[in-house]
Amino acid sequence: MLQMASVVLLLAIAIDRCLRVRIPLTYKSTVTQKRSWILVALCWFTAALWAFIPMFGWHNYNAVDGTTNGNSTSFECSFLTVVSTSYLVNFVFFSSLLPPLAIMTGLYCYIFLTTRRQLRANIGAAAESSTYYQKEHRLAASLVLVLVLFAVCWLPLFLMHSVRYYGYNIEVPSFAIDIGVLLSHANSAVNPIVYAFRIPKIKEEFKKLWRDHNDLKQNPNLIVLTMRLQWQLRLADNARPWHEAVPERLADEGHGGRPNNPRPCKGEGVEQLPCRFA
């Protein structure tokens, strides 16, 4: 499921980058936050639907039923024992992995060609336009690196499954399959490193987390002290007399510390204090 989710999410990111280059003027009105959340939910729903297909019948009946009919209460419980190789090769690899990879390759080629053409055409033009396309070009290069790492980590495993499934006289060693599985899992460990070093926004967030971690490590009570200070300041502000707090608030709003047309409050001892504004 996670592998399929990675594929559809990478495809969604590629489409998003392509729209940013294709329709830069209407991009913000087209790709809204609501539509983005709907697209993310649709990607995860599609990945879950594909992943649950073996539970509805496309699995190895013989591996499980054979041990049951043979009066055996135990059998080798592994991924390849239960999941059908035809499902992995024909559906996951040829139908769900290769077409999105081909589409993403075409989209990123279009992005690179478009940004390069726009950069050449904007020589001597406005600096904002050139900066925009340079930024999109660098971000697309970072995302292409993520795509290449995904393909390098996952394709060997599926290629070995394809050779084992279609090559009847070709034997694929089990240790090679294990290396392919380990390589596919390594992709999840490599992606955060690539994001942290290549994408500026994520890089800044990582730096912020690291600084906060160091501050907390040097002073474990920093968070508690900060929350306590904020709470004391809030209590002190609420405990101040109303007529002392109003001039400062008005000064912040540009009234010079004096209310416009103050009306006296009713009550003993506060007749001259401004109560509300006209």
What key phrases describe this protein's structure?
278 residues; two-stranded antiparallel sheet; 11 helices; disordered C terminus; extended; mainly alpha
Describe the structure.
- The chain is mainly α and 278 residues long.
- Helix content is 74%, strand content 3%.
- The chain has 11 helices and 2 strands, in the order H-H-H-H-H-H-H-H-H-H-H-E-E.
- The protein has helices at residues 2-22, 27-30, 33-51, 61-69, 79-82, 85-121, 127-166, 174-198, 200-218, 222-239, 242-252, and strands at 262-264, 274-277.
- The protein has a two-stranded antiparallel ribbon.
- Helix 1 (2-22) runs antiparallel to helix 3 (33-51), helix 1 (2-22) packs parallel to helix 6 (85-121) and helix 6 (85-121) packs antiparallel against helix 7.
- The longest helix is centred in the middle third of the chain and has 40 residues, at 127-166.
- The protein is extended, with a radius of gyration of 31 Å.
- The termini are far apart.
- The model is unreliable at 67-71, 246-260 and 262-278 (pLDDT under 50).
Sheet with the most strands: spatial strand order: 1-2
List low-confidence stretches.
67-71, 246-260, 262-278
- Terminal CA distance reads 62 Å
Question: What about the largest sheet?
Answer: 2 strands, antiparallel
Helix content: over 70%
Query: In DSSP terms, counting alpha (H) and pi (I) runs of 4 or more, how many helices?
Result: 11
How is the topology of this model organized?
Blueprint: H1 2-22, H2 27-30, H3 33-51, H4 61-69, H5 79-82, H6 85-121, H7 127-166, H8 174-198, H9 200-218, H10 222-239, H11 242-252, E1 262-264, E2 274-277
Antiparallel strand pairs: 1-2
